[in-house]
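hey
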């Protein structure tokens, strides 16, 4: 057995079944090893950012790692943005990166690069294998490292993959988070019983249904506000679950939500800071007079900690979201009417991938009373995540419909994911909210650049933030990659087309022509 075969056999023993791949010459022995593994599912991706984003979506929905198979440093570099998002989501993910044969590296061939350094920017664990006999043990260690909720990168030189003398390794013991400290629970209980204004901020696995229910009981017993991070990796929501308020994206909104607090209890969340610095504004969003209590760190065990906390407080029954869906919208097609249509039609058990950005501001309210569903968001802020994330989620949960709500500018970063959706016949309905603008940057421009200093023709702003010259034809782009598509220009058209797409299996795309929320008006 060669090194590549031992790695694939070991990954199978460790539960890794899906490989999102864009291989090259250095990975051909790994491809051959996958040929010999009947249980492995190799998913081709036309761009490495699709592979890494799909692996993130798979990990978020299963709690188990998928593998990527990428070609050398440039291939890894092409996937870096969505590995950044995966790192921020604490997704379990294993990268297999091929490299030149060990004796070839010194020749400085054209594709030679410092893979270890590139991998280190997004990986919690990096290892370069130099011995085929150790390859399987390194693979088992990579899966064990990924189970901590991190990106694990294993670099496999070509000669390690092709050389004989390897054998499979057994899985390493399962990782379990450390139990929460009793003093952390006691401190949180004391703060919540103090009668001073308090809030509970949830993140990571604390936004899943069991922890949400317990956190809502704690909030109901103490009068604390219940919040979650701005971009949760996976938020379970809908009718029958407690409603949790997401922290605002803009710092002014988040500060208003946190204003007056004396205690903030972090459950799997980081202490909130603004996404960007603004002149004259502090980056820390927590009021100075507010004391921050860490109940569980990111990656901890929130369910047990919250249950322990609830036991120290009076029993209470939280309010749960009632089943309530908006009426199908009519009239002009806007971000608001798109949201109403999604809320009216969202099927039970759906997985919603939200990268709608500024056009999606109305989505949370419109879907709060929809049937139970999962909501996946842009955890690391690196756009181009939505389409790949949807592909990975659909492969992870083949019995559940996936709805991808995608901004047009963000879609163009990883549009190749549509081809993977068609190739794998994934049940994904993609809605492209096409406002023909980088509207969020229009907003940030107005926030950062005073009108007096931006006077004039503003040609750079127009040229860099406008997507209407030429306009993007998402119907043609989708059809060119094998995905049935249609375009809506009214609320009635959109509702009809969305209902049709949701009712039919397989991938579909609906382009929704909506006005930009910020910046100059554009023709429809």
């Amino acid at each position: 057995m060669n090194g590549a075969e031992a790695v694939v056999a070991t990954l199978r023993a460790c539960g890794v079944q899906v490989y999102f791949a864009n291989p090259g010459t250095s990975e051909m022995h790994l491809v051959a090893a996958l040929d010999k593994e009947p249980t492995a599912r190799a998913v081709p991706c036309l761009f490495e950012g699709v592979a890494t984003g799909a692996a993130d979506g798979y990990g978020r929905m299963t709690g188990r790692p998928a593998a990527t198979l990428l070609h050398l440093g440039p291939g890894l570099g092409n996937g870096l943005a969505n590995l950044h998002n995966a790192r921020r989501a604490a997704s379990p993910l294993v990268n297999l990166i091929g490299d030149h044969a060990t004796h070839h590296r010194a020749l400085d061939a054209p594709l030679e690069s410092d893979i270890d350094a590139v991998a280190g920017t997004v990986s919690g664990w990096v290892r370069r294998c130099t011995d085929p006999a150790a390859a399987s043990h390194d693979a088992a260690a990579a899966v064990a490292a990924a189970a901590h909720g991190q990106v694990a990168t294993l670099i496999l030189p070509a000669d390690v993959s092709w050389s004989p003398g390897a054998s499979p390794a057994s899985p390493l013991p399962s990782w379990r988070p450390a139990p929460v400290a009793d003093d952390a629970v006691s401190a949180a209980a004391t703060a919540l019983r103090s009668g001073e204004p308090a809030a509970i901020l949830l993140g990571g696995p604390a936004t899943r249904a069991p922890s949400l229910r317990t956190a809502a009981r704690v909030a109901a017993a103490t009068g604390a506000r219940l919040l979650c991070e701005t971009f949760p990796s996976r938020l379970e929501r809908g009718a029958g679950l407690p409603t949790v308020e997401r922290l605002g994206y803009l710092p002014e909104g988040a500060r208003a939500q946190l204003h007056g607090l004396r205690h903030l209890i972090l459950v799997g969340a980081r202490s909130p800071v603004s996404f960007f610095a603004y002149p004259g504004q502090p980056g820390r969003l927590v009021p100075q007079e507010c004391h921050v209590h860490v109940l569980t760190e990111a990656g901890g065990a929130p369910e047990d900690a919250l249950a322990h906390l609830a036991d120290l407080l009076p029993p209470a029954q939280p309010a749960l979201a009632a089943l309530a869906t908006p009426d199908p919208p009519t009239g002009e097609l806007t971000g608001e009417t798109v949201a109403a249509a999604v809320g009216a039609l969202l099927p039970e058990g759906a997985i919603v991938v939200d990268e709608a950005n500024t056009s999606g501001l109305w989505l949370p309210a419109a879907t709060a009373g929809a049937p139970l569903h999962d909501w996946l968001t842009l955890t690391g802020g690196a756009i181009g995540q939505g389409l790949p994330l949807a592909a990975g989620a659909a492969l992870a949960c083949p019995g559940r419909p996936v709805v991808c709500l995608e901004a047009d500018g963000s879609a163009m970063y990883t549009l190749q994911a549509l081809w993977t959706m068609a190739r794998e016949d994934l049940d994904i309905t993609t809605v492209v909210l096409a406002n023909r603008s980088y509207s969020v940057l229009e907003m940030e421009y107005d926030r950062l650049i005073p009108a007096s200093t931006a006077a004039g023709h503003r040609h750079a702003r127009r040229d860099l933030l406008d997507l209407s010259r030429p306009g993007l034809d998402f119907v043609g782009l989708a059809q060119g990659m094998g995905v049935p598509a249609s375009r809506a220009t009214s609320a009635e058209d959109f509702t009809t087309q969305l209902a049709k797409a949701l009712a039919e299996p397989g991938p579909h795309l609906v382009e929704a022509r909506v006005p930009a929320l910020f910046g100059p008006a554009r023709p429809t």
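The CA atoms of residues 101 and 158 lie 5 Å apart. The mean pLDDT is 95.
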